[in-house]
Amino acid sequence: QVQLVESGGGLVQPGGSLRLSCAASGRLFRLYVMGWYRQAPGKQRELVASITSGGTNYGDSVKGRFTISRDNAKNTVYLQMNSLKPEDTAVYYCNTGGSGQNYWGQGTQVTVSS
Question: pLDDT at residue 30 above 90?
Answer without folding.
Answer: no
